[in-house]
Amino acid sequence: MKKILVTGGAGYIGSHTAVELLNAGYEIIIVDNFYNSKPETIENIKKITNKDFLFYEGDVCDKKLLRKIFSENEIDAAIHFAGFKAVGESVAKPLMYYRNNIDSTLTLLETMQEFNCQKLVFSSSATVYGDPERLPIDEKCRLSVTNPYGATKLYIEGILKDLYISDNEWSIAILRYFNPVGAHESRLIGEDPNGIPNNLVPYIVKVANKELPYLNIFGNDYNTKDGTGVRDYIHVVDLAKGHLNSLNYILDHKGIDYYNLGTGKGYSVLELVKTFEKVNNVTIPYKIVDRRPGDIAVCYANPSYAKEKLNWEAKLGLESMLKSSYNFSKNTNHKKL
Questions:
Q1: How far is residue 185 from each of residues 27, 88, 320, 323, 331, measured CA to CA in Å?
Q2: What is the pTM of this model?
Q3: Which of 74, 187, 254, 329 could potentially form a cystine with 205 if both were Cys, beta carbons 3.0 to 4.6 Å apart?
């Protein structure tokens, strides 16, 4: 049975991927420092899958901890989620983002190299395309960034490319994903950020639950159908399955490659709000405010390469994403374990 290290495995995408890995028969080891996640998520992954696994609490920047994990376990591959991920926060705190996201990756790669583990799935982002040169975005589009978060992802992609050039024994899948939304059908894991959310749907959920008075919509003067930003929203369970398929692929193939994980459909912020109201029978008050620095007008994927190479495609639609997000927020069980 293959043993997979999942960094940031208590986080939103990491936890859903951990469930898919366990259900597919992999052994997993999770390392997480709970910076933007919660300890009960670990227990909820076990509850959903009815399987146990090793967990180490700590920071992936900590070389001593990583060496301990690798020396205590025969790890076959790693999936690297650990990192800060908020565009707005990265603009306000660029040094924090550069230090954490790049440092954690270098520490992981150095440790993997030391222990002769050369298979990696990396959590990148569609932000590496910046303001895209064409739509839908394919993997050959020009790379550029409009914020420090995106810059850290692009720098890490460069590090991984140089690593592969230096040693062709590596197997690396770089996943550029679009906007993850939704929650597991168990209602036990989902997006539950600490503090005020940076992402749109958790913010909408807090407004729906009357934890926040209204939603801020950042700009209604973009060149889009209703003036609000358009994004490609992907169900987190579909995204998790994309990581599983990527892992299966790199275990059998050497090389480095890049994959867009998205639906290929773009929805505006207002379309998202109206769909949320309809499927959940709630009202979401909102205010139009100034654009955020670093935001772009339109971003959606051409996901055909992932279908061709990884035999993966998104199956779940926007209504399922928004209903499951709200259902997760209403389920107090995930907060009581």
A1: 22, 30, 10, 10, 11
A2: 0.96
A3: 329
Which of 287, 5, 47, 293 is CA-nearest to residue 188?
47
pLDDT tens for 55-111 read 999 999 999 999 999 999 999 999 999 999 988 889 999 999 999 999 999 999 999
Q: What are the tens digits of pLDDT across the range 99-158?
A: 999 999 999 999 999 999 999 999 999 999 999 999 999 999 999 998 999 999 999 999
149 is catalytic: yes
Domains of the chain, CATH where assigned: 3-182+232-262+301-315 (3.40.50.720)
Is residue 2 helix, strand or coil? coil
- Residue 112: both structure tokens together: 């993997």
- Residues 54/73, Cβ–Cβ less than 8 Å: yes
In angstroms, the CA 7 to CA 28 distance is 10
Which residue reads 């850290």 in tokens?
A: 152
Tokens 């909408």 correspond to what residue?
204
Nearest CA to 258 out of 97, 143, 113, 106 is that of 143
The CA–CA distances, whole Å, from 279 to 100, 136, 169, 225, 269 equal 38, 27, 48, 22, 16
- Give me the catalytic one of 56, 149, 177, 258: 149
